[in-house]
Each structure stands twice: as C-alpha cells, then as structure tokens.
Amino acid sequence: MSLALTLARRGLGNVWPNPAVGCVIVNAGRIVGRGWTQPGGRPHAEVRALAQAGAAARGATAYVTLEPCAHYGKTPPCSLALIEAGVKRVVSAMEDPDPRVSGGGHSRLREAGIAVETGVMEAEARELQAGFLSRITRNRPWLALKLASSFDGRIALASGESQWITGPQARARVHAMRAEFDAVMVGGGTARADDPLLTVRNFTPLRQPVRVVVSESLDLPRDRLAGSLQTAPLWLMHGVSAPGEAVAYWRDLGAELIELPSLAEGGLDPFALMEALGGLGLTRIFCEGGGQFAATLAKAGLVDELIGFTAGVLIGADGRAGIGAMGQENLADAPRFELVETTPIGGDVLHRWRRQTQA
C-alpha cells in the first residue's frame, strides 16, 4: 500500500476532477502490475495496473489507495475490471465518499466472491486525498496558502520590492509545489503589482495548473498574463460591476470569465468563490496572496493549510505584511494551525501547517 500511495502522488495536479489513485497488483509475492491515474483522469489506476499485469492478475491481490469505482462514466467501473481480471483479493485504503461509489465498489467486489480488506494506511490516504475529499464533502477545493517572507513576516519592502526574499532553492520548490496543485490563485492586488505568470517553470509538468485571478473589477495588467494564454489556462473571477470592455477583452483572448456576487462591504464573496471553483472541478488550490486577499480567505475560515518559506532577513515594520488586516478582537478567535513539517531549503526554512479543525 505504501508503494500504491507513492504512485498515487504522481497524479496530484494532473487528474482533477478525479482523485489521484495508485494501484499495485501482487501475485505469489511478486509485483506484476502497477498504475496510477493518468493526466485528465483517464485511464484509472486499476485499469493501468491490470493492463500491465495481464494474465498474472488472475488470483492476485490488488492494493488500491481508494475504493474502486462502481459507476459507469466515460469508462466502465474499475470494480468490474478487477472482477473480470480474476483478482481474488482487494485491499483498499479507504471508502470513496462520492455518492456514485460510497461503498458500492466494495460491495460489488464482495458479491463477486472477492475478499475485500479496507482501512489499510487510511490516514495517509486521506491526507493524499484531502483535495478530492474536500470537493466531495464540502463542495469546495482544499486551499493551501503559501507565503514567502522575511523572518519578521514581511513579504516586501515598503516600496514593493520583493525579489528575492528567499533563495533559488526555495523558489524552485515553489514551482514543484505548483505542479502538484490543480490551480494557482492570486488576488487582483498581486496581479496588478507583479503581473505574474503563475506557471510552473524550471521543468515541464505533465499539466500546467489553472491560473486563477480574483479581481472584482477586472482592472488587471494586460502584459504577461494576457500574452500567455497559450501556456496555461486562465480563469478570471470577477464581480457583476466589471466593465463590459474588460470582460470582452479577456474573453476574446481565451480566458474563462466567472462572475461572482460581491459582499455589501466590498470585495467578492469568498465562499461563493470557493464553491464556484469546486463546481468547476478543482480539488486543490495553491494560493499565493496577496496580503489582503489572504486575510479575507483566512478570516472566512477557508484556508486549510499554510505553506511558509521563511528567510533569515529582517525588513521591519515599514515592510508589507504577509497577511492583511483581519479585524480580530479576541486571540481565541484567531485561526490556528498545527505544525506538520519543518525542512531547511537552501538558506531558508520551509514549514507547513494544517488547520486544527476542519469544516
């Protein structure tokens, strides 16, 4: 199962809206087939592993990181493929909460006389499937907020200069992380300040993440973002008041335009934003700010994970804060996260935190 989970990880960022699944088939103590969900979500992991195993799948045990599907979609169900291949035992890490499956795959296997064991390395599987599980059970993607900051929590000088607070190794790791997410998202303020490409660079990913820019009025620079539509998809989330000229300009370029409701106090509704992105199939989002946009998401309780790259440099109170004002009056109400990883990256430190309580 550990190998199956490692294989499944290869699908992160490449298979949405499907889950990233791994499968290993073992017969007489020998691995005869292995597979993982392919880019775009097809073929499924089990189908890939069975194709590699061939006749050796008969009488074998299949280790799968998620319950084999039981419904007919673009392809027949994987549970049926396992039955037809003559597998005698299936070990799965967890049940699939998708209503189209939800125990149906395991039941189909048992009805065919196949021994089924579940819950093996379930905690590890749930961590891997956090994005898929979030979309299915909470109707929104898993949201990781990334900050690259000075030791004193600043993301830029007062002038806006920020290149580069962290070193080249940390920046390379950020690109590797982007490749494991379905989308990279920023607020309009960051887009106006940096006109970022938001693509994976330094290596060629199997699938570039969707670039999501959230700007109520669509007042965005028309340089690098506008000139890179052939490189990666661009989704622009905007308000009803966005000028028609701006909407037409971006739509004609090939960007996807999604209109969202605005809050009475201004700004787009963060809950509507996340629900819309989940409805479009995204499971994992890598948010790179900026400060006020990050504060809005954090205050709404929508940040599931913090990913920090901290440099040993001091900028001071006149620098720009990593998180904008949240208007909190009681420390007890502040969002809290649990440390799950600390790793030196070149001359910087990577630290990851998970939200203590999930919705």
From TrEMBL:
Co-factor: note: Binds 1 zinc ion.
Keyword Metal-binding: yes
UniProt cross-references to Pfam families, sorted A to Z: dCMP_cyt_deam_1, RibD_C
Pathway connected to this protein: Cofactor biosynthesis; riboflavin biosynthesis; 5-amino-6-(D-ribitylamino)uracil from GTP: step 3/4; Cofactor biosynthesis; riboflavin biosynthesis; 5-amino-6-(D-ribitylamino)uracil from GTP: step 2/4
Superkingdom of source: Bacteria
Active-site annotation: 46 (proton donor)
The protein's name: Riboflavin biosynthesis protein RibD
